[in-house]
Amino acid sequence: MATTMDLRIDLQPITAQGSTEPFAWHAGIQARAQAFHTVDAILLREDRAELEGIRLDRALAAAAAAGLADAGTLLAVPVQVRAGAPDRLLGHLFRAALRHRFPLDQIVVEISADESTDRDAAAAMIHACTDRGMMIGLSDFAAGPLALGLLAHCSPRLIRLAPALVHHLEAAPARARLVEGVLRLAGGMGVTVIAPVPTAEAGQRAAAAAGLRHFQGTPNSAPHVRRYTRPVRRWGAPIAATRLAA
Fold it and tell me: Is the CB of residue 100 less than 8 Å from the CB of residue 60?
């Protein structure tokens, strides 16, 4: 197993068509597959919650360092619902926001709507966020049974479409019609639908024809990435508070 864990915070802008000013940012939390995700998979649930707390803290730290709190934009923060009880995970998020002075009313708690997501855990997180007045986002949305089921029980602020759903729409008319259906459904609920920004001109035309108006990322530009590393603990060793080095 690797001796270091490489954790990256990838801040990507979310803009409306025709605008260069982001109205929101997405705090992607990434790591090398053979380090972070391997360790996460073998941990006990209580240890996964602590690891998720580290991820959330790093996401809020990166957003604060980038000046997003003062900018007043939304920040979509992915939360892994399988990592622990909703109260505990939201507690980590609230403490991170307080520590880095990031306003809670700018945070969107993002929950994966991928079909592999634990339905009960996702529903519990939605309920906990609703009770606390937190904004909700659904990611990896591909209009599958789980995604539509979650959407039926909440009014998310944002929906991020699964990249596979909108990939090369110009060559996939069936998927384009599906995207149009999601947009009609979301539009009736007042939900903003976001897709990865198309890089090719044909993809841009197809996205516009399908009705997509909000995009994540910027073509031909490097993402704003902040990298952190920390040692990976030995198997069976207790988790200790560890300062992450930028």
Answer: yes
Dihedral sign, CA of 69, 74, 79, 81? positive
Q: Strands 224-231, 4-16: parallel, antiparallel or unpaired by DSSP?
A: antiparallel
Q: In which residue ranges of the chain is pLDDT below 70?
A: 1-6, 31-46, 219-246
Say if strands 135-141 and 24-31 run parallel, antiparallel, or are unpaired.
Answer: unpaired
What is the residue whose two structure tokens read 């959407």? 151
Q: Which structural domains are found in the chain, ordered by start?
A: 4-220 (3.20.20.450)
The Cα 86–Cα 92 span in angstroms is: 10
Beta strands in 48-169 (DSSP E): 74-78, 107-112, 135-141, 158-161
**Residue linked to tokens 């073509």:** 219
Nearest Cα to 88, choosing from 63, 121, 113?
121
Per-residue tokens: 226: 């902040």
pTM (2 d.p.): 0.83
What is the reported pLDDT for 40? Answer: 55
Contact 5, 35 (CB under 8 A): yes
Contact in structure between 181 and 187 (CB atoms under 8 Å): no
- Cα-atom radius of gyration of the chain, to the nearest Å? 18
Q: Which of 77, 26, 84 is nearest to 55 (CA)?
A: 77
